[in-house]
C-alpha cells in the first residue's frame, strides 16, 4: 500500500489515478538505486533529513527502503482515498525513478485497475486484517500476506483469466464419528465448534483426569483434517516468557566462531507465519496449563490481538518493520487449565474476555457420562464407573474430584491386581497430598474401602473371558 500524502491544493490521489503513477516524497533525498541496502538508505536519510526527529527519520527510512527494494514491476499496489472509504488497486509497471515534483519525487508507473469500481475496505468481503493494516501510519505498508485476497476483488477484464476465488476460512462441522471416538455428546462437540467460529479461542478447565489435553489435541486434528504439521503444542510454566513464546534473542555461534545473539521465532510466531501462507486452512496452537505462566508477560502486546483480530500492533523487537502485526483469523488457540490450584478464580478479566471457557468436570456433562460410554464401547462391566462415582462422593471439595481418564486404560481390566497397583501408586498419592490434614486418606479413598462400600471385589471390574463352547471343539 502506498498512501498519498494530503495536500492543501487538491487530493494528490486524483493525480496518481489520472497520471498512472504512485510514489513517495523524497525531494531532499539524494538519488538512490534499487538494491541499495537498508543500512545505506538509513545513512542517506539521516544525512539528508537531519532536521527531522529520530522517529520521523526511521519512518522515512522504512518508506524509501520498501519503495526501492520491496516493490517490483508486476506487484499489486493499493492506495486509500483521503476519506478512507475507497481503496484503489493497480499493477506496478516500472522501476523507481526520481522526478522534480516535490510532492511525489520518487515514483513508479502504475496501471490502475479499478478507478471506476474502488473497493470498500470495510466491506464484509474484504480480507481479514486489511482494516488493521490501513490504520498503520506509514506511507508504505507491506500487504503481501493479503495480495491474493485483494486480487480476487479486482473487476473482471474481458478475455483475461478469472481472478482466483476469495479464500475463506471454513471450520469443519461436528461429526457423529468424532463424538463417539471422544466419548463426548454430539451437542457438546457441536457447541464447541460454533464457539470457535465466533471467537477462535477456547480454554478447557477442570480437575485432573478429565481429558482436557486429550480433547484439545483431538479437536485440533479434527479442525486441521488430521494435518499434524498444522498443530503445535506448548506447555506454559512459571518461567515461560514472551521471548520463549513469540520471539526472543538466543545465544548463537557466529560464522566467525564468535558467540553472539540471534532473534529466534517462538512457536506462536511460527504458527502465525505458517497460517498467513494458507489463510483458508486452520492452524491450531494448543497451550497446555495456560494458567501456570504470567499471561500478560507471555503475550505482551499480542494480548490485544486475541480480542481484535483485524487490528495491528507494533512488535516489541520491531520485526514488523513498522507495518504492524496482525493475528490471522485462521490461528485457533486451545488452552487447558487445571482447577486444583484454584487458578480459574485468579484469571483476570482480560483473559476471561478473550477466551471461551468450557468446564470439564466429573459430575457434569460432557465428562459425567464419559467413563460409562468408554466401558460400554470396550464391553467392560459398568462397575468401574460406580467406583469413580463413589470415590468422588467422598471428596467434598469439587475442584479435587477425579476425572475418568485415570480409569480409561484397558490394561487395568485385563489382569487381576492391575487396578489395585494403579490405585496405590497413582490415584491414592494424589488424594493423600490433597487431603493431608484430614486424617488417613487410605481409609476414605483406598480401593478396598470403596469396593467394600459397593459390595464388590476387584474381579467384578475385570473383562470377562470369552466363553468357549467345548462341545464344538
From TrEMBL:
Spell out the Gene3D superfamilies in the cross-references. P-loop containing nucleotide triphosphate hydrolases
Q: Which residues form the AAA+ ATPase domain?
A: 198-365
Q: Which Pfam families match?
A: AAA_5
CDD domains xrefs: AAA
- Please give the SUPFAM superfamilies that the UniProt record associates with this protein: P-loop containing nucleoside triphosphate hydrolases
In terms of InterPro entries, this protein maps to: AAA+_ATPase, ATPase_dyneun-rel_AAA, Methyl-DNA_Rec/Restrict_Enz, P-loop_NTPase
Which residue spans adopt a coiled-coil conformation according to this UniProt entry?
none
What is the protein's given name?
Answer: AAA family ATPase
Amino acid at each position: 500500500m502506498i498512501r498519498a500524502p494530503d495536500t492543501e491544493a487538491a487530493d494528490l490521489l486524483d493525480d496518481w489515478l489520472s497520471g498512472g503513477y504512485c510514489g513517495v516524497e523524497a525531494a531532499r533525498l539524494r538519488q538512490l538505486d534499487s538494491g541499495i541496502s537498508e543500512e545505506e538508505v538509513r545513512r542517506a536519510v539521516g544525512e539528508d533529513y537531519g532536521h527531522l526527529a529520530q522517529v520521523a527519520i526511521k519512518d522515512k527510512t522504512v518508506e524509501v527502503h520498501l519503495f526501492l527494494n520491496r516493490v517490483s514491476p508486476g506487484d499489486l499496489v493499493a492506495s486509500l482515498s483521503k476519506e478512507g472509504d475507497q481503496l484503489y488497486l493497480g499493477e506496478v509497471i516500472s522501476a523507481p525513478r526520481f522526478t522534480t515534483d516535490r510532492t511525489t519525487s520518487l515514483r513508479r508507473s502504475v496501471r490502475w485497475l479499478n478507478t471506476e469500481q474502488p473497493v470498500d475496505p470495510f466491506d464484509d468481503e474484504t480480507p481479514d486484517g486489511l482494516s488493521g493494516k490501513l490504520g498503520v501510519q506509514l506511507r508504505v505498508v507491506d500487504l503481501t500476506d493479503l495480495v491474493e485476497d485483494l486480487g480476487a476483488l479486482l473487476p473482471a477484464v474481458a478475455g483475461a483469466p478469472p481472478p482466483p476465488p476469495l479464500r475463506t476460512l471454513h471450520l469443519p462441522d461436528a461429526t457423529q464419528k468424532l463424538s463417539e471416538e471422544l466419548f463426548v455428546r454430539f451437542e457438546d462437540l457441536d457447541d464447541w465448534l460454533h464457539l470457535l467460529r465466533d471467537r477462535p479461542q477456547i480454554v478447557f478447565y477442570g480437575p485432573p483426569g478429565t481429558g482436557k489435553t486429550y480433547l484439545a489435541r483431538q479437536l485440533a486434528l479434527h479442525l486441521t483434517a488430521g494435518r499434524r504439521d498444522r498443530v503445535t503444542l506448548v506447555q506454559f510454566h512459571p518461567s515461560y516468557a514472551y521471548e520463549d513464546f513469540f520471539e526472543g534473542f538466543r545465544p548463537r555461534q557466529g560464522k566467525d566462531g564468535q558467540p553472539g545473539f540471534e532473534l529466534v521465532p517462538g512457536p506462536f510466531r511460527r504458527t502465525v507465519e505458517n497460517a498467513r501462507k494458507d489463510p483458508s486452512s486452520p492452524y491450531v496452537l494448543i497451550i497446555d496449563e495456560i494458567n501456570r505462566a504470567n499471561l500478560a508477560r507471555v503475550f505482551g502486546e499480542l494480548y490485544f490481538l486475541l480480542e481484535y483480530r483485524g487490528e495491528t500492533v507494533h512488535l516489541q523487537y520491531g520485526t514488523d518493520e513498522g507495518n504492524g502485526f496482525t493475528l490471522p483469523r485462521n490461528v485457533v488457540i486451545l488452552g487447558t487449565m487445571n482447577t486444583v490450584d484454584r487458578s480459574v478464580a485468579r484469571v483476570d478479566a482480560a483473559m476471561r474476555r478473550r477466551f471461551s471457557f468450557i468446564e470439564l468436570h466429573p459430575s457434569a456433562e460432557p465428562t459425567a457420562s464419559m467413563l460409562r460410554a468408554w466401558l460400554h464401547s470396550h464391553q467392560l462391566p459398568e462397575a468401574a464407573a460406580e467406583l469413580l462415582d463413589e470415590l468422588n462422593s467422598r471428596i467434598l471439595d469439587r475442584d479435587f474430584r477425579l476425572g475418568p481418564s485415570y480409569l480409561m486404560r484397558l490394561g487395568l481390566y485385563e489382569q487381576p491386581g492391575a487396578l489395585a497397583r494403579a490405585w496405590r501408586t497413582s490415584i491414592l498419592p494424589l488424594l493423600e497430598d490433597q487431603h493431608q490434614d484430614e486424617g488417613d486418606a487410605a481409609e476414605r479413598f483406598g480401593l478396598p474401602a470403596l469396593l467394600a462400600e459397593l459390595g464388590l471385589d476387584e474381579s467384578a471390574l475385570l473383562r470377562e473371558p470369552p466363553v468357549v463352547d467345548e462341545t464344538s471343539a
